[in-house]
Amino acid sequence: MIKVESEILNKSGKRENWREIAFYASDDETQFEVREYYGQQKISYMKETARLPFDCLGIARMNYSNMLRTRVIDRYKPIEQLKTKVPCLPFSNFKPPMYKCDFDVPFAEQLSKINDPVVIPVQQGKRAYIKLGQESINSIQAVDIKGNAFTLDKNIQEMLASKVAIGSFESGVLETYILDDGSVCLYDVIMLNGTEINSSYKDRQKSLKGMFGHKSGFTYPDTLEANTDLKSHPGRHFIVKDNSVSCLDSRTFVIPNFYSVKVLIEEKYSYRPGYYKVMFTTPEGYESIGDLYHPHEELYANTQIQIAFKKVENGKPVNFWFSPIQHKNKLNYDEAGTEISQISQLSYFWYGP
Prior knowledge:
By secondary structure, the chain is mainly beta. It has 4 helices and 23 strands. The strands form 5 sheets. Strands 1, 2, 3, 4, 5 and 6 form a 6-stranded antiparallel beta sheet that branches.
């Protein structure tokens, strides 16, 4: 069991009375406990007086809150400086940080507001957060940027579990990108062994490389200087972090680096899961431009979407992907705007520095 959260309370009278209310969770977050400790005179004298087990997070949290409320009614006062909370846990309640992309402020101006910017290119994959624990491979959990849980490939789970070591690296929450080939790129670390990591980003990267190594099957992102010519870089977008703050800091933002145009889904391949043929409309009818790989959700024939890309060859986008810029209604059957003439006006469809 990991102590996720606790509060220490005090009531003064003829004697000093101390209580600690603590919330525990198993590494795989299937079992929970609320414990109470009581002692007189010194905090160090406290001993366990109650232990309530639960198999439901919501009920366990309710009992934790009720026990705290009861002690406050009994005239105990919480000692704020002794309150503890392990970041990101329980992981089932974890809300991934939201990285904003502000098109209303010039990106150069946004960069200038960061004291010590680190620019991290993203060329492929999906951002995800992974929790490692010490008990078993079942302790490894993953969520996407919306907080939705998903299951990692078994070989990745085994690779992660092999890095957990009692006494040195027992638990952690990592910021990663799951790449198109299913491998994992380690972008950042939020928590290690119950403590939020507040060292610089560059030091956090050194720690990750020290723990996971260079021959482990994991990869690490490149970093760029803020004065780099970002538009010419092959990255699809850039994550900009302040080197001096933690991974959860709200100032992190995204700079896009692509063209985004409207196309129609021509068909969904029945024999190639996740692949779709896309097309432009033309004065003569329609023109296929290639295949889109998008396994994360189902798309439908004749609906309008946007694709993103960096290059055009023979009048067509190449190496394109599903654009993050989309109509709110994914079932938009309107052909307006999907004309091939977009390619001759690309400067209007550039998103980036």
